[in-house]
Design goal:
The chain is an all-alpha fold. It is built from 18 helices and two strands. Helix 2 packs across helix 14. The radius of gyration is 21 Å and the shape is globular.
Length: 403
C-alpha cells in the first residue's frame, strides 16, 4: 500500500515537473495570481488601508481574456513562423518610436539606435561567436552602467535614476551575461554567482527572481527522466532553500502601506504580500474602468517608464506602481492590446520551447515575473530581437534537418 502511494506521488511530481517547464504553466500561474490578488483586493482590511484597492467582475474577465489570448497564441505558434521578418520590422518601428519619446532623441538617432540593437542581436544569434565573448560584452555593459551613474547599493537615491536613465544598458548586459552562462554551463550552478552579484550590486529583486526561475526551469528540464537519485535530493533542497530566500527578500524589502488618513505604517511580511497583490489588482481595476474596451492613452504607456506613466495618468502623481501583466497593454489599446501582446509572447515561447530551450527558459522567467510588475517596451523588444530573431535563424536549419 505504501509503495503504491509512493509511486503515485512520484508520478504526480513528474507530471507537475512536466507542466512547470512548459509555456502552458503561465496560464496556471496567471490563474493563481488572479485568485490571490482578487481575494486580497476584496479584503476589507486592505481596502481600509488604501481606497484604491478594489476589483470588479469586469476586471476579472479582462484578465481571463488575457490568459485566453495567451493560450490561443500557443495553439497557433507553429503557424506564426510564417510571419518570418514581419515582426522584426514591426519591432524596429516600435523601438524607434519608443526611443524618440523616451530618450528625447531625433527620429534619425532613434532609428540608428534600434538598428544597432537589432544588428547586435543578429550578430549574436546568426554568427558562430563564442559565448565567452557574449559574456564579456554583457559584463562590460553591466558594469559600465554602474561606473557611469554609481552603485545603488551605496546610494539608495540612485535606485530610481538608474532604473529610468540607463536601464537599457543594465538590462541588456544582464541578459547577455545570463544567456551566455546558460549556454556555457547548462548543467552547473554558475547562474547563482550572477544572481548574487545582481542582487547585491543592483539591489533589484526582479533580476534575482529572473535568474532563479531560469535556473529552476533548466534544472527541472535536465532531471526529467527516471528515478530520483541522490543528486536530485540536493537539487530539491537547493530549490526549496532558494524559494525561501527569494520569498524573504521580496517580503522584507521595506514595502509600506499608507493609511487613508495620515502617517504610514509597516505591515508584517504576510500582510505586506497581501497588500502588494491587492494594490496591483486595484490599479488594474482602475485601468479597466477608464480603458475598456478600446484603450485610453493610445500607445503612450508602453515605455521604459510605464509604471510611472500609469501612476501619472490614473492618480496625477509621480511614483512607480504595478498593474499586472496586462495593465499597460490595456491602458494603451484596450482588449486589442492585451490580445496582441499575449498572443505574441505565447507564439514566441511556444516555438522557442521546441527549438531553443535555454533561451526559452530566460524569456519565460522574464514573462512570469511580469505577471506582477507588468510588460513594458523592453520586454516586447526582447521577445522580438532575441526570441524571434533566433527563430528566424532556425527556420533554415530545421528545414534542412527534415530533408
Amino acid at each position: 500500500m505504501k509503495q503504491r502511494n509512493c509511486t503515485g506521488m512520484l508520478n504526480a511530481l513528474r507530471e507537475l515537473r512536466g507542466l512547470i517547464i512548459k509555456p502552458e504553466f503561465f496560464i496556471l500561474a496567471g490563474l493563481s495570481y488572479l485568485a490571490a490578488s482578487t481575494f486580497a483586493a476584496l479584503d476589507p482590511g486592505m481596502q481600509a488601508i488604501n481606497p484604491r484597492v478594489s476589483t470588479t467582475l469586469l476586471t476579472f474577465l479582462v484578465f481571463i481574456f488575457g490568459l485566453s489570448s495567451f493560450y490561443f497564441g500557443l495553439r497557433t505558434s507553429r503557424a506564426a513562423l510564417k510571419l518570418k521578418y514581419l515582426p522584426v520590422m514591426g519591432g524596429l518601428a516600435l523601438g524607434t518610436t519608443a526611443a524618440f519619446f523616451i530618450l528625447d532623441l531625433d527620429i534619425i538617432s532613434a532609428l540608428f539606435l534600434n538598428l544597432a540593437a537589432l544588428l547586435i542581436s543578429v550578430v549574436l544569434l546568426f554568427s558562430r561567436l563564442r559565448f565567452e565573448y557574449v559574456f564579456a560584452a554583457g559584463f562590460f555593459l553591466f558594469w559600465l552602467n554602474f561606473l557611469l551613474v554609481g552603485f545603488p547599493l551605496l546610494n539608495p537615491e540612485l535606485h530610481v535614476q538608474l532604473f529610468s536613465v540607463v536601464n537599457t544598458m543594465f538590462v541588456v548586459g544582464f541578459m547577455f551575461m545570463t544567456y551566455s552562462l546558460i549556454r556555457l554551463y547548462p548543467r552547473y550552478r554558475c547562474l547563482w554567482l550572477l544572481a548574487i552579484l545582481s542582487a547585491i550590486v543592483s539591489t533589484y529583486r526582479i533580476y534575482m527572481g529572473i535568474v532563479f526561475i531560469t535556473w529552476l526551469l533548466l534544472e527541472l528540464k535536465n532531471s526529467g527522466g527516471g528515478k530520483i537519485g541522490r543528486g536530485d535530493v540536493g537539487k530539491i533542497l537547493a530549490m526549496v532553500l532558494g524559494l525561501v530566500i527569494l520569498s524573504g527578500v521580496f517580503l522584507y524589502t521595506g514595502y509600506s502601506a499608507k493609511t487613508a488618513s495620515s502617517g504610514s505604517w509597516s505591515l508584517d511580511p504576510v500582510r505586506t504580500l497581501e497588500y502588494r497583490l491587492a494594490l496591483t489588482m486595484g490599479v488594474f481595476d482602475d485601468i479597466v474602468r477608464i480603458s475598456f474596451p478600446f484603450g485610453y492613452t493610445g500607445g503612450r504607456s508602453i515605455t521604459m517608464e510605464a509604471t510611472e506613466f500609469t501612476c501619472r495618468v490614473l492618480y496625477g502623481c509621480t511614483s512607480r506602481i504595478t498593474s499586472t501583466a496586462f495593465g499597460e497593454a490595456m491602458l494603451d489599446f484596450g482588449l486589442l492590446g492585451i490580445f496582441l501582446v499575449s498572443w505574441w509572447m505565447a507564439a514566441v515561447l511556444g516555438n522557442l520551447f521546441r527549438h531553443d530551450y535555454p533561451l526559452y527558459a530566460l524569456l519565460f522567467a522574464s514573462l512570469l515575473v511580469t505577471l506582477d510588475v507588468g510588460i513594458n517596451i523592453f520586454i516586447v523588444l526582447l521577445f522580438i530581437y532575441l526570441g524571434w530573431a533566433r527563430l528566424v535563424r532556425g527556420l533554415t536549419e530545421w528545414k534542412m534537418r527534415k530533408v
